[in-house]
Protein 1
Amino acid sequence: MSITSRINKLFALAAIYSSEVFGDYTINMPVGVTEISHKIHQLHMTIFWICVVIGAIVFSVMFYAIIFHRKSIGHQAAQFHEHATIEIIWTIIPFLILIAMAIPATKTILEMDDIRDSDLTIKITGYMWRWHYEYVGTNVQFMSDLATPYEQVIDRAAKDEHYLREVNNPLVLPINKKVRFLMTANDVIHSWWVPELGVKKDAIPGFINETWARIQVPGTYRGQCAELCGARHGFMPIVVKALSEQDFDKWLAEQTAAKAQG
Ligand SMILES: [Cu+2]
């Protein structure tokens, strides 16, 4: 096989892989369903537009110079060295822009880390290759495994809508409650990532990382392990089912009773 056809094959494989796994990804990041995810999205858009404006200004000046100050139309280069005023201006303006971006970004990061006054604590443990959820203070804990049938993985069956993004036991959470997540791992580093909750945190063996989410809208939110953790890294999805407070209390009571009986 020639190098070109090998490269073509590689690109074709990459295209197939990405279209299936990232099928429901959009170009922009999701707005999400938590206050924090809204803030992250807002920050992302603000900084994006700052970059667009800077890009537009820099490139217009550059193209103007390339076209109208070119040697072939007889333009003479200006001969000067060290212009203190200009140097101060082009240092101070970017400095101010960076400060203006750093202030809201730092505020949001501090807020993401503020796990005080949480209503519920979930301990999340990453395993090769599944997630374990423990409702701290109750007897409810379970493993959450990939539910996509293996036949679909090896192309012996048609792929489902949520191919590789379906689990047997989703993490059930209440809306409007501050849920604290404690994250760790049992073997290698994993990362618990649910874009719509605005949560992405490494799960590291021997360490406990903390973060939180207050979900505003009931629904099903999907995520993935976001830290390359071995052969089946792409086979440990996350599914969060957000229920109303009453439905959640009912679910938790049922689970507690079932566990107590078992
Ligand atoms: Cu992992």
Protein 2
Amino acid sequence: MMAAIRAAANGHQVTLLEQNEKLGKKLYITGKGRCNITNDCETEVLLKNVIRNSRFLYSAFYAFDSRQAMAFFEGHGLAIKTERGGRVFPQSDHSSDVIRTLQKTLQQEQVRVQLHAKVADILTVGSGNRNVCGVRFTDGTVLRAEKVILATGGCSYASTGSGGDGYRFAGELGHTLTERRPSLVPFETAESWVKDLQGLSLKNVTVSIRKGKKLLFEEFGEMLFTHYGVSGPLLISASSLVNDYMDDMPLMMEIDLKPALTEEQLDKRVLRDFEENQNRQFKNALGKLFPAKLVPVIINLSGIPGEAKVNMVTKKERMDFIRLIKHFPLALQRFRGFDEAIVTRGGVCTREVNPSTMESKLVQGLYFAGEVLDLDALTGGFNLQIDWSTGYLAGDSV
Ligand SMILES: Cc1cc2nc3c(=O)[nH]c(=O)nc-3n(C[C@H](O)[C@H](O)[C@H](O)COP(=O)(O)OP(=O)(O)OC[C@H]3O[C@@H](n4cnc5c(N)ncnc54)[C@H](O)[C@@H]3O)c2cc1C
């Protein structure tokens, strides 16, 4: 949509082809229906939040950065607001308003929007240095075009339309495709007891992930247990940062359940709780330390019988228990699938695309924009900013 708007604003006759019955099906579900449009930050920060091929994005981000994206939406009548961490949303909290704004702008720029238009192939002429000459639809009809911008998305949440067709088109035209993997995605754990904790959200914990002794990820924040493993903001970010170690799974994860306290301070705190509950059973003395759902699980892992009287717990047992609270272990077995992944890692290899124009280096007149490229970023509006920026630059360059 952004690419079409920009190409039309430059005076071209533009047709936007969408296989679905409406535009922006994936945009509609972004940001839990609120659409985190972008991040209000400097370009350097945008670049830092891109995990794959950030250098490829210099020109695109400098051509159209997040402040320009904000000005674009505001200039076209969308009231926006900035929340914690620079996250920008529509004032209304409705992603549908973002789509409506884009649709209105497409109309203003006289872009012809063709729905139910599933492209089957991109057509080229010539051998060696080929030129784009149009597209063929699945019903066999052809639309001639001097330029084609391929913005078919990734292959996550395929039900929104991003089934991966664009990869096939690019591959058939000779483009290298890097391996596609789910990213910004929850993890499955080896421990099946996680299902007892399903729905439990832990705030203010530190999660670390290691491959052997090597620390791959460590952050403070919020996480969630699910029936299959772990999710929530910390793990979603982690999935992006440890993605290159997917083949090394299982990876060891530890939760520091009390990151504000050192082991010594925690021991004093536990001793105090034990003294207050001297004649109670161990399982009934932990209510102040943890959410109720976690108590039976942590007791199980501690090896201390839940029925043991608190004053019978030995110092060694208590010290092991403290260590368990600071290093609550889980084994990350695998990522969940593409249908739960916010983005696709991998795609059209950026080395074969001109970063200053988004044009293919292999096929003249073919441009790329958005998630179909091997680009992905952390959460916070950065992925959509990649799409706006590459779309804008592609639209400008045609
Ligand atoms: C649940 C979820 C939440 C997200 N939340 C955010 C967020 O808040 N902020 C953020 O920055 N990012 C978010 N993202 C990521 C963001 O949605 C993507 O980066 C973005 O949608 C990619 O844009 P795109 O235009 O490249 O592809 P898409 O939005 O996937 O659009 C591609 C379009 O191409 C069409 N298409 C595909 N093949 C064909 C074909 N053969 N013929 C015709 N049409 C075709 C599809 O139907 C689709 O409409 C989220 C993603 C998910 C899944």
